[in-house]
Amino acid sequence: LKICCCHSNLLDLSGLLVLVCIPRTRTKHAEATFSFYAPQIYKKLPENCKTTIPDACKGEMKCFNHYGGYLCLPRSASVIPAPEPAITPTPAFNPCPLGYDPLSLPSLFCFSHTDIDECERDEHDCQPSQQCINTLGAFNCQCPRGYNKVGTECIDIDECRFRYCQHRCVNVPGSFSCQCEPGFQVGGNNRSCVDVNECEMGAPCSQRCFNTYGTFMCRCDQGYELGPDGFTCNDIDECRSSSYHCQFRCVNEPGKFSCVCPEGYQLVGTRMCQDINECETGEHQCSDTQTCVNIHGRYQCVDANRCQEPYAHNSDNLCVCPHSKPACRDLPYSVVHRYMTITSERSAPSDIFLIQTTNFLTGSFNTFRIRSGDDNRDFYIRQTNNYSAMLVLARAVSGPREYTLDLEMLSGHPLVGQRSSSVLRLSIFVGPYTF
């Protein structure tokens, strides 16, 4: 067996020298049949047999193109194509570190400004809730503000655990908010609570408003009271709350009250009523022949001469009946007219009028009595000494009413057998009111 070696000095693109040896038979004319298993990729290689080295194989040998060179085989040999295997794409060779591209192929220089932006190329594995941040040669998956990265997920941070808020904290996804109690508002730092001056913001107080920490209070003016709602001021009816505000009549007004007096009286101060003395003020209509007598709440005009027969008018209010007249023998020598007024329901017993003799004879003795006019025994006499006595109101009487009492003084002397008497005719007017 002889071995015929065919060789070639051809260098392919990879710079390899190919030497192929093929066995041959001893018989010169005999031809051996050869088969060569050639992958399909060979068909895509450069045709070295035809273009690179013309007439490369000699004699009975045939040139077959081969990866990196060629083969000389008997002419009876044939190429049987093999099934084309699946082609797996091979990444292009990148001389730069992971995350970088060369500035320009086939350059072998890598610069920082040629960094691959995986975020822009969408070549990252960040979750939809995460934000891709490009870095030199790599990228980071960051969670939004308010989230913590736990593994590959973003978990909301419950900021309320850290008590950032002064009053109430409300956690929301990725953040939080502070809320304040009623009467407060969130301050400039969005965390603290400051007092709200409700009085300057239209608090519903009907009269006066006082701001306090966190709230407000409504107050009322004098004469008003705060209603059940805490806002409305209602008028106080002072007249209903007490019967002692006014001596006569109370008139309620918004926020206050006033006192009024009956006709013939005037208000003294704010609540007391005083009788108007029309006889002194000149507000009467008595004639010149009459005398004005003031009584509680009104006045009365009486004749200046009230003497009746057989009495004769002697002087103002004095009537005399001399014993020289037969008709006067059994009558008091003199009658003096007097007038007084008392209030209704005056407390009793009460001293109301002093009786006193003006003519006193040494050695004489005097007694006093109510001669007439006291049918109901509303009065009595209390003698204090030999020349004076006191008229006493025995019980309270109601007016308006008028009494005419004849108060008699009886006088006697041991040396004079005859007794004399004088009468004080007292007109008592009881007013209609207790004042």
TrEMBL record:
Where's it mainly located?
Answer: secreted
Q: Does the keyword Translocase apply?
A: no
Q: Which domain of life is it from?
A: Eukaryota
Cite a GO CC annotation: extracellular matrix
Any idea where this protein resides?
Answer: Secreted, Extracellular space, Extracellular matrix
User: Which intervals of the chain form a coiled coil?
Assistant: none
User: An example of a Gene Ontology BP annotation on this entry?
Assistant: system development
Q: Which CDD domains match?
A: EGF_CA
Q: Which GO terms describe its molecular function?
A: calcium ion binding
Domain EGF-like: where?
115-155, 156-194, 235-274
The residues the entry assigns to the signal sequence are 1-27
Cite the entry's keywords alphabetically. Calcium, Disulfide bond, EGF-like domain, Extracellular matrix, Glycoprotein, Repeat, Secreted, Signal
| The family this protein is said to belong to | Belongs to the fibulin family.
Please state what the protein is called.
EGF containing fibulin extracellular matrix protein 2a
Source species of the chain: Poecilia latipinna (sailfin molly)
Its taxonomic placement starts with: Eukaryota, Metazoa, Chordata, Craniata, Vertebrata
